[in-house]
Amino acid sequence: MGSIAGRALSRAVAVAMDIVASQPNEYRAFIKAQIEKWTPLVKASGARVD
Question: Which domain holds residue 37?
């Protein structure tokens, strides 16, 4: 795979990422769920953006 997309896919697979095709509304719902999932942990950790 010599293309940029092919190299990106190879790297993603190498670090055990799952590539999932979805519709914009499905992606939006996924991101919303991730924010809801991780927000309490980040707040509890006291992490700050520099």
Answer: 22-50
Distance CA 38, CA 35 (A): 5
Q: Which residue has the higher pLDDT, 22 or 43?
A: 43
Alpha helices in the chain, H assignment, sequence order: 4-14, 24-45
Q: How far is CA 3 from CA 18, 26, 45, in A?
A: 19, 27, 40
Number of domains in the chain: 1
Largest CA distance in the chain: 44
* Confidence (pTM): 0.57
* In-domain check, residue 17: no
Give me the half-sphere count of Cα atoms (radius 13 Å) on the Cβ side of residue 2: 0
